[in-house]
């Protein structure tokens, strides 16, 4: 028996681009057969509604409102709700799992993290950093930026990706690097649930908490453990990068290598 979890979800109390409250999702996800969701609202440098001028502890309390609203309703109806967030750098976005409000309250430096600092701190705290939709090429993204040494896993299927080949490239990237994989809906609005366009991961056990969830994500290596759209990861051989690509080493310095060459020799 496997348990289905949403890995990528936004609420309108915290994310500027979402229209659903955390609590609004609960009944829909239960109906869709999920055991739980992770709330991953946009963090300090992302499209976050919380005033960045607030003192850190106040900022964290406000930031957690979207999650807490979902958690309260989830507890009432029997859906696991875990805390996470999504931070953005130069168009490259990362989902962070496994830490909680108490941890954040004690770590004001999190708002200024570099990718390297993020990876190290999250790793030290037993969490997990997942590169979200690494090959998305929307007009608000100027370049594809990869930091393969500063992530634990790759989101290889994202229901919010407009083009299927973004996901095909992400899977190829994860496989070349031997990294764990994940899939998520990147949901912002209820109409996406109504359309049945939900992604997620199948876990063999129910994680006890956010840190258990993070540990289990690091163990996913088979696309059979992902809930994704039909044929979503099938290559059609038209996958290519149409905007500049930057690959960073473990010190966040660019490595100048052609993408295909990089994928071949990684
Ligand atoms: Zn958003
Ligand atoms: Zn997102």
């Amino acid at each position: 028996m496997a348990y289905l979890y949403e890995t990528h979800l936004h609420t309108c109390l915290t994310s500027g681009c979402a229209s659903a409250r955390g609590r609004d999702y609960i009944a829909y996800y239960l109906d869709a057969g999920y055991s739980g969701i992770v709330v991953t609202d946009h963090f300090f440098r992302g499209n976050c509604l919380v005033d960045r001028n607030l003192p850190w502890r106040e900022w964290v309390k406000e930031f957690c409102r979207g999650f807490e609203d979902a958690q309260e309703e989830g507890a009432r109806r029997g859906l696991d709700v875990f805390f996470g967030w999504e931070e953005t750098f130069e168009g490259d976005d990362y989902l962070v799992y496994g830490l909680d409000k108490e941890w954040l309250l004690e770590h004001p430096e999190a708002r200024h993290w570099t990718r390297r600092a993020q990876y190290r701190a999250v790793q030290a705290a037993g969490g997990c950093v997942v590169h979200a939709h690494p090959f998305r090429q929307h007009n608000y993204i100027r370049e594809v930026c990869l930091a393969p040494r500063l992530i634990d896993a790759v989101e290889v299927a994202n229901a919010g990706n407009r083009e299927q080949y973004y996901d095909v490239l992400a899977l190829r990237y994860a496989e070349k690097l031997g990294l764990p994989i994940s899939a998520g809906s990147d949901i912002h609005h209820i109409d996406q649930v109504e359309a049945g366009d939900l992604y997620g991961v199948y876990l063999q056990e129910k994680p006890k908490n956010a840190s258990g969830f993070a540990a289990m994500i690091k163990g996913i290596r088979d696309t059979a453990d992902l809930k994704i759209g039909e044929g979503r990861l099938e290559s059609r051989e038209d996958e290519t990068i149409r905007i500049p690509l930057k690959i960073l080493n473990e010190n966040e310095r660019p490595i100048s290598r052609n993408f295909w060459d990089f994928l071949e020799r990684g």
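The pocket of zinc ion (ligand 2) is lined by residues 8, 10, 86, 132, 186 (CB under 6 Å). The chain has one domain: 3-265.
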